[in-house]
Design goal:
heterodimer, A: alpha/beta, Rossmann fold, Alpha-Beta Plaits, 25% strand, B: mainly alpha, binds adenosine-5'-triphosphate, binds magnesium ion
Chain lengths: 315, 292
């Protein structure tokens, strides 16, 4: 029997009238792996999730979830997915617990199993204090947590999270990260959009960066960072004269130091370990005093800014 | 995790042969208990129970829900007192006998309208959006709403009857007739709720929803014998009244409560209500499934 990738997307396109939300997206998510989707506001992240969760129809291309086409077999797709959308979808008039029980019952759980599942999720998300209050009285972050719990009720094999940690406090964010990592270990395929690059770095096995509905970069976080090439060496000197002298020295050896206005600090982009060694030798040879030297890896922020920064950011 | 049968291949591009064969790790424990689906009956039951809990879950809501028919009843009995002089009304004994059925039907229509408003709130608040991502029948969502709101209506009708009997001196021929009148009114509420549910599923804005509701309500209510005998209306209104389902419903309820023959009115009312409900159901079932 053929095994189907949990999520498979080919040439997916979506237009709303004249607005092109998605323009030929393709990717696959395997069992147990997490795909991070990055992109500016309006890049098409939510549109992508809407289509994959059967809430909207693609205008071109196709997508399957566990082998089921999202357009032709929406009901089968819905059996396999859990969703926490960008905007909380909670029922104001029920208590948090009653809501989770209700959803579990709708997924086919018996009364007992539904209650157990609700309590399990309430514990996992630290909602115990609020569980028996009406959702109407919840804070923004509490709603979000309840919504995330709601997406997990059925233990779906495929999980879609649209900016899941927006509005969560740091502790809750860590809790969610752990939950997602655990689920992935157990085999869940996860698609997660985020504006937080550290989150993408921690959680995602693979990243795609969307801009205006197109994939402009994709790969493992580490590869994306490496593709950007440069690490940066930051050197602090005892005085401005020292830093000025050092700048001239290293510049004459082909480096491109960036001065920090007012501070005796130089930032020097380097491409490999060899570069660092030769930089240190140059400084040593010039006889200037070096106060403090740090080497920093490129962050996903650098990647993101490099992709979107070059006049590519739509207004 | 449950594996489904291979999907049927169709004219779409064949994308099931993925280039990356997924590596299956040790049995995905997380999904072993994956439940899958519930039956239509369970969905209906769970969702209806939820709406009923919401409707009766707070003393303020219960109080207001019961106050509303009582206020309508008291207000109408005072405001339209002069009408009792008119010849068409005199034959009913007292004006309350003429008015009560109209009041009951008014209550039914208002409750039906609130059904649509409640559904619309659930659509805009995103709760229906969550249900959309689940393997359940969206029709069950609508049916549950119409059923629970009809139950709420029954409670309201009972309250209205109690007030009519205790305060306004309403006397029916028999209590069986009164119960039958309430049942017919509940049927009116159920049929009409589908009209408003259908409007709500087409996701109008709040303003459009309100405007549409009033466009439906006012012509329906005022071209009936609800408050005035049809004979006292201008000719064109009389013509409209004779094709309005609510006229038959009101006349049938009226005939039931005073012990007149009600056969044809009842049949016409039920037939027209079924038509309204059917059109509403079909429109709503289509509207709720619509995707962007
Ligand atoms: N229902 C709709 N009707 C018309 N245009 C839409 C609709 N939904 C989305 N769009 C447009 O499609 C584009 C992509 O929107 P989308 O919500 O997918 O962006 P996003 O990446 O999720 O942005 P954000 O980071 O702000 O959540 C935007 O230009 C948006 O205006
Ligand atoms: Mg979005």
């Amino acid at each position: 029997m053929p095994t189907h990738a949990p999520v498979h997307v080919l040439g997916l396109g979506k237009t709303y009238g004249k607005v092109v939300a998605l323009d030929g997206i393709s990717f696959t998510i395997d069992e147990g792996s997490v795909l991070g989707v990055l992109g500016h506001n309006g890049a098409g992240k939510t549109s992508l999730i809407d289509i994959l969760t059967t809430g909207a129809r693609p205008t071109s291309g196709a997508a399957t979830i566990c082998g089921w086409d999202v357009v032709r077999f929406p009901h089968h797709v819905r059996r396999s997915i859990g969703v926490a959308g960008q905007f909380a979808t909670v029922d104001e008039e029920l208590t948090g617990r009653a809501q989770l029980v209700l959803l579990a019952r709708l997924y086919g759980a018996g009364r007992r199993a539904a209650r157990d599942r609700a309590d399990e999720l309430i514990d996992a998300f630290g909602l115990a204090d609020a569980a028996r209050r009406k959702v109407r009285t919840y804070s923004g972050g509490m709603r979000r947590k309840l919504d995330l719990a709601a997406g997990l009720v059925a233990r779906p094999p495929v999980l879609f999270l649209d900016e899941p940690t927006t509005g969560l406090d740091p502790v809750s964010r860590n809790v969610l990260w752990e939950i997602v990592t655990d689920l992935a270990h157990q085999g869940t395929a996860v698609l997660l959009t985020t504006q937080y690059l550290d989150e993408a770095d921690v959680l995602a096995d693979t990243l795609i960066v969307l801009a205006r509905g197109r994939v402009v970069a994709e790969g493992r976080p580490a590869d994306l960072k490496r593709s950007l090439g440069n690490r940066t060496v930051a050197i602090r000197f005892p005085s401005l004269t020292a830093s000025e002298y050092a700048a001239q020295c290293v510049a004459s050896h082909g480096f491109r130091p960036v001065r920090d206005s007012g501070e005796p600090l130089l930032r020097i982009p380097v491409s490999g370990t060899g570069d660092i060694a030769s930089l240190v030798r140059t400084l040593d040879g010039s006889g200037v005093d070096v106060g403090d030297l740090t080497v920093s890896e490129p962050t996903l922020d650098d990647v993101y800014l490099a992709l979107h920064g070059a006049g590519d950011h739509p207004g | 995790m449950s594996r489904h049968a291979a999907p049927v291949r169709g004219p779409r591009p064949d994308i099931t042969t993925s280039p990356t064969t997924p590596i299956r790790r040790s049995p995905p424990a997380a999904h072993r208990e994956h439940w899958g689906v519930s039956g239509f009956g369970t969905q209906l039951w769970v969702l209806a129970l939820r709406s009923i809990r919401t409707a009766f879950g707070h003393y303020r809501l219960i109080f207001l829900g019961i106050l509303q028919p009582v206020v309508i009843m008291l207000l109408f009995s005072q405001a339209f007192a002069g009408v009792s002089e008119l010849p068409g009304v005199a034959s009913y004994g007292s004006y309350i006998n003429y008015l009560l059925p109209a009041t009951l039907v008014t209550i039914a229509v208002i409750t039906a309208m609130s059904s649509g408003a409640a559904l619309m709130f659930e659509i805009t608040s995103g709760f229906v959006g969550r249900l959309r991502t689940m393997p359940i029948s969206l029709f069950a969502v609508l049916l549950a709403r119409s059923i629970s709101d009809t139950l709420r209506l029954v409670v309201q009708l009972a309250a209205a009857m109690v007030v009519a009997v205790l305060v306004l001196d309403f006397r029916s021929t028999s209590w069986v007739a009164s119960v039958a009148a309430c049942a017919l009114t509940a049927a009116v509420g159920w049929g009409m709720s589908w009209v408003f549910i259908a409007i709500a599923t087409w996701r109008p804005s709040q303003e459009v929803m309100q405007a549409a509701s009033f466009v439906v309500i006012f012509p329906l209510m005022f071209t009936t014998s609800a408050y005035m005998p049809v004979e006292s209306m201008p000719g064109w209104m009389e013509a409209v009244a004779t094709v309005n389902p609510l006229t038959y419903a009101i006349d049938a309820v009226r005939a039931l409560t005073v012990g007149d023959p009600y056969g044809t009115d009842l049949a016409a009312a039920l037939a027209l209500l079924c038509c309204a409900a059917l059109i509403g159901i079909l429109t709503a079932a289509h509207g709720i499934r619509r995707t962007r």
